[in-house]
Amino acid sequence: MRKRTNIGIFAHVDAGKTTVTEQLLYKSGAVRNSGSVDDGTATTDWLDIEKSRGISVSAACAEMNVNGHEICIVDTPGHVDFAGEVERSLSALDGAVLVVTAVEGVQSYTEVLWRALEKLKLPTVIVINKIDREGADIDAVIKSLDRLTGGKTALINCAESTGSTDCTVGTLTGSRREDTLLRLADFDSRIEEKLFSDGDADDTLLTEALAAGCTERRIFPTVVVSAKLSLGIDTLLTAITELLPDSSRSQTDELSGVIFRVMHDSVMGKICFIRLFGGRLEARSTVAVPNSDKMNKITQLRRYSGRKYTDLSAIDAGDIAAVGGLTDFKNGDVIGSLPDERRVSITDAIIRVGVKPKDEQRRPAVLNALGELTEEEPMLGLEVNPITREIYIKITGMIQLEVVRELMSSRFGLDPEFSEPRVIYRETPRKTGVGKWAYVMPKPCWAIVELTMEPLPKGSGLQFRSAIKEGTLARRYQHHVETSVFETAQQGIYGWEVTDALVTLTDGMSHSIHTHPLDFFVCTPVSFLRALTDCGSQLLEPYITATMTASEDLLGKILGQIIDMRGEFDSPVIENGQFTLTATMPLADSMDFPLRFRSLTSGRGVYSSSLSEYRPCRDGQIETLARRSVDPLDLDKWILFRRSAITEQT
Fold first, then answer.
1. DSSP SS3 for 69
2. Which of 14-18, 271-275, 541-545 bottoms out in mean pLDDT, i.e. has the lowest?
3. What span, in angstroms and rounded, lies between the C-alpha atoms of 218 and 204?
């Protein structure tokens, strides 16, 4: 039986995951020489922008074959600014390899990645990399990993010495082996019996227990390596092939797949990378476009390994492949239905930037270029205000903005102006409120909608339910109300997205003669905004969690700056003349802090951050966003606009 495993390599930035990937490809024989990130020769960092910057900005596939076991590696970006690539890649995998360093250990983004792996229940092998670096402390890292995993890490090899370039990696022995066996005995009775009777267990039984425990996420096999020195990679390769499950774990008979990456090729045009969970796709066959009556014909099938590819005639369940011809598909689209829940959110775009062509004649070219980039990264959320004609994109951080600017120049030959970044706020109701409107004039029209809105706990998002009596309002009109609620929630009283709210349809009425099918799309936005006004709209702002390490003599200055930015911080850990500090700060006040931190530490400090949460703004703080359309609370103009009597620009 064919055995195939699709794995993702995940890590906090600079943990060395691309170097780990290169070593795996080299050890498996997939490449003749291991590439280098610094030299721009890494297999999975083949884009020009990745070579020039020395970081991964998009997910990339690489194929290897180990004794007939096909393995597709999806190497994902380690910088939080490109977390959208990570989110979508997670949906395509059978297992994961999570890389941390032997010096920094678990960092802020590591915890974000771990929560995503937990939610998706992905079997995971953990790698402690860079054991050759000065300051490496395997025991300290294992303790931090135990806090992360709930004490479920299990070391399966060990370094005989650390902190030097001549360290060697051997088989698991001594107290390390005993500790791993005890952790396995917690859920495997065979190991428990062997320990009780013989004081040890043979390697075959150990491997079986590790594989079963890893698949069920009851244990997380942990390998110590130095990817730079190619130490421990053989053990890691064995762990991937023997402990992570193959793709048959999630296969179905019906056609089922997910698009997790989109790129554009000068020959193939738009390319969609698909993980197929069930069924079969063949070249020249047609595929139904989701939520549409359209069909797209597959023009080409390829299997990529870095920038190299092999043409295919068909792909089967378990395969990852690049598909040409799916012009109407979007990144994240599902083909058929997924066999289980495979969506997870890691971060949100929290910064808004205006884009202005230097020459108005280049406006169509700028829009086309941004549209293509948004197809590849939907989180950019290209938006054009129909009233002001202003162009906006959303980003997760300043490095992503630099990459967008560079791509506009190098790929499209464009040099638009970018406005000062602005924080993206949100709105939520302060208390329960009610909004109602009867849209009964001027006829022909008839729609009455009453909505009750109430706050929900943080992170709940926007929810809708209907509580009207059976037969009061036709189901199709209730569906219109629900659709309109989610559309209207994109801009609340202050113009920001409304979240953490429950909206309940408590009353509604139509007329057998006068009601037009679109009347509830006119009525609902007014009721929604009236309900939010009655509740009182609370502005929310994004906070980030940052981890930083620098020389101890700079601690006072940095703490002072954090306080000035309305930040909070834990007690710093001071060791060997260095401090490590975790702080939470409002993004609006700390957007330029990474640059100031780099300058203050002369580039020797280590800084990383990720989105923490949205919190209420200070009392009296008002931040507004221009409306993208006519304000529904301006009733006369709203009715004329929705009845096409005026345009948005009028």
1. strand
2. 14-18
3. 19
Residues 6+ apart with CB under 8 A from 14: 78, 101
- Asked whether the predicted pLDDT for residue 168 surpasses 60, the reply is no
- pLDDT per residue over 421-449, tens digit each? 999 999 999 999 999 999 999 888 999 99
Concatenating the DSSP letter of every residue in 395-410 gives ESSHHHHHHHHHHHHH
* Residue pLDDT, tens place only, 565-624: 999 999 998 888 889 899 999 999 999 898 899 899 988 888 888 888 999 999 889 999
Question: pLDDT higher for 511 or 51?
Answer: 511
Give the pLDDT score at 38: 65
Nearest to 573 by CA among 582, 583, 586, 565: 582
d(CA 153, CA 181): 11
Crossing angle between the packed helical segments 174-185 and 189-197, to the nearest 10 degrees: 130
Pairwise CA distance, residues 231 & 170, whole Å:
9
Residue owning tokens 């620009």: 649
Q: Is 268 exposed, middle or buried (0-12, 13-18, 19+ CB in 10 A)?
A: middle
Residue 403: both structure tokens together: 């990459």
Query: 635: which 2 tokens?
Result: 């009733």
Sequence-ordered list of residues with C-beta below 8 angstroms from that of 272, at least 6 positions apart, any chain: 259, 261, 262, 322, 323, 324, 326, 329, 331
Strands 391-395 and 462-466: unpaired
For the whole model, what pTM was predicted?
A: 0.86
Q: Residue 45: what pLDDT? A: 65
| Residues 519, 524, 530, 534, CA torsion sign | positive
Domains in the chain (CATH in brackets) are: 3-249 (3.40.50.300), 252-336 (2.40.30.10), 351-423 (3.30.70.870), 427-535 (3.30.230.10), 539-616 (3.30.70.240)
Amino acid in the structure at residue 56: S
Q: Which residue matches tokens 């709105």? A: 427
Is residue 507 predicted with pLDDT exceeding 90? Answer: yes
Tokens 């596939």 belong to residue: 61
Neighbouring residues of 27: CB distance < 8 A, sequence distance ≥ 6: 230, 233, 234, 237
CA distance 311 to 306: 14
**Residue in 220, 191, 219 with CA at minimum distance from that of residue 203:** 191
Do 230 and 132 form a contact (C-beta atoms < 8 A)? no
Work out the number of other CB atoms within 10 angstroms of the CB of residue 110: 26
pLDDT in tens, 180-222: 889 999 998 998 998 888 888 888 888 899 999 999 999 999 9
Cα dihedral value 187, 189, 191, 195, nearest 10: 110
Phi, psi (rounded to 5 degrees) for 284: 80, -5
Peptide bond before residue 357 is cis, with ω within 30 degrees of 0: no
DSSP string, 89-104: HHTT-SEEEEEEETTT
The CA-to-CA distance between both ends of the chain, in Å, stands at 66
Q: Burial letters for 122-138: b for 16+ Cβ neighbours within 10 Å, e otherwise?
A: bbbbbbbbbbbbeebbb
Q: Is 597 helix (H, G, I), strand (E, B) or coil?
A: helix
Give DSSP secondary structure letters for 462-518.
Answer: EEEEE-SPTTSS-HHHHHHHHHHHHHHTTS-TTSSEE-SEEEEEEEEEE-TTT--TT
**Cβ(485)–Cβ(503) under 8 Å?**
yes
Query: Which pLDDT score, from 0 to 100, does residue 443 have?
Result: 84
